[in-house]
C-alpha cells in the first residue's frame, strides 16, 4: 500500500489480499485487487505501467508484482477465488536440522528419523480428499466460532522434487519431496496440520487409517501433540479464478 501511494492517487489505495498466511510461510504467487483513482484528466495506468511503477517502489521489499489485469467492479481477490494451491517442501536424509543445505534453510522441513514411508503417506493423503469437517485439523483462534470447519480438498499429492542447486551435492543422498494441496479455502493452519499428520504416518507413528479417524473425531484436541509442521516449508503456490 505504501508503494501504491507513490502513484499519487486522489483516494487512498487499499489492497485486498486473496489469502492470509502465518508468519514464516512463503508465497510463490499471491493475488490482490485494488482500485486506483487518478486526478481528473490523467489517463488510467496501463498494466505494464502499474507493474513497473509498483516494483520500482518495492525494491527494498521481498515482494515483486508479476502481473496486473483490469477486472470488473464485482471482482474480489478473496471471494472470487475458485481454488488455492499450497505446496509443502520436505527434505529427507538429514539427521538434524543443522544438516539442511544452507540455501534451503527456512524453505523446507527436515522431520528427522531418517527416510519417510512415502507410499504410506500417499495412501493416507487420499482420506483428506473430498468434503469433510476438518475440525481436528484446525488450530483454534478468535475466528473459530464464526467459521465453518467444513472444507473441500480437490487434490492431495506427494511427489519427488528437487532442491536448490541439489545437483551439486548429490553425494549427500538427500531427497526432496513436495506435498501439494488444492482446495477452495482452508481453515486456520489446516495445511500445516495435514502435513504434520502425514509425516507422522511416514514415520510409522500413525497408520494411514488414523487420518480417517482423526477426521471423524472432529475435535482439534485429538490432533497428535507437537505434530504440526513448521511454517518454513509451506508455500502458497497459486490462486485460481
UniProtKB/TrEMBL annotation:
Residues 124-241 form the Pseudouridine synthase I TruA alpha/beta domain. This is tRNA pseudouridine synthase. The keyword Translocase does not apply. Its EC number is 5.4.99.12. SUPFAM superfamilies: Pseudouridine synthase. Belongs to the tRNA pseudouridine synthase TruA family. Pfam families: PseudoU_synth_1. It catalyses: uridine(38/39/40) in tRNA = pseudouridine(38/39/40) in tRNA. GO terms for biological process: tRNA pseudouridine synthesis. InterPro entries: PsdUridine_synth_cat_dom_sf, PsdUridine_synth_TruA, PsdUridine_synth_TruA_a/b_dom, PsdUridine_synth_TruA_C, TruA/RsuA/RluB/E/F_N. Substrate binds at residue 86. GO terms for molecular function: RNA binding; tRNA pseudouridine(38-40) synthase activity. The active site is at residue 22. Keywords: Isomerase, tRNA processing.
Amino acid at each position: 500500500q505504501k508503494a501504491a501511494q507513490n502513484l499519487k492517487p486522489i483516494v487512498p489505495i487499499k489492497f485486498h489480499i486473496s489469502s492470509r498466511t502465518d508468519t514464516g510461510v512463503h508465497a510463490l504467487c499471491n493475488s490482490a485487487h485494488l482500485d486506483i483513482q487518478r486526478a481528473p484528466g490523467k489517463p488510467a495506468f496501463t498494466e505494464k505501467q502499474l507493474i513497473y511503477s509498483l516494483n520500482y517502489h518495492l525494491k527494498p521489499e521481498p515482494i515483486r508484482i508479476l502481473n496486473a489485469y483490469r477486472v470488473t467492479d464485482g471482482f474480489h481477490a478473496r471471494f472470487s477465488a475458485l481454488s488455492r494451491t499450497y505446496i509443502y517442501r520436505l527434505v529427507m536424509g538429514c539427521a538434524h536440522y543443522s544438516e539442511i543445505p544452507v540455501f534451503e534453510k527456512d524453505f523446507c522441513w527436515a522431520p528427522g528419523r531418517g527416510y519417510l514411508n512415502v507410499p504410506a503417506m500417499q495412501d493416507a493423503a487420499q482420506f483428506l480428499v473430498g468434503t469433510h469437517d476438518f475440525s481436528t485439523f484446525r488450530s483454534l483462534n478468535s475466528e473459530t466460532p464464526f467459521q465453518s470447519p467444513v472444507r473441500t480438498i480437490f487434490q492431495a499429492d506427494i511427489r519427488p522434487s528437487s532442491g536448490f542447486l541439489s545437483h551439486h551435492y548429490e553425494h549427500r543422498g538427500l531427497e526432496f519431496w513436495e506435498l501439494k494441496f488444492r482446495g477452495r479455502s482452508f481453515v486456520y493452519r489446516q495445511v500445516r496440520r495435514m502435513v504434520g499428520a502425514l509425516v507422522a504416518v511416514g514415520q510409522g507413528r500413525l497408520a494411514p487409517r488414523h487420518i480417517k479417524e482423526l477426521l471423524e473425531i472432529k475435535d482439534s484436541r485429538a490432533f497428535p501433540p507437537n505434530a504440526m509442521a513448521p511454517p518454513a516449508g509451506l508455500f502458497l503456490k497459486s490462486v485460481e479464478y
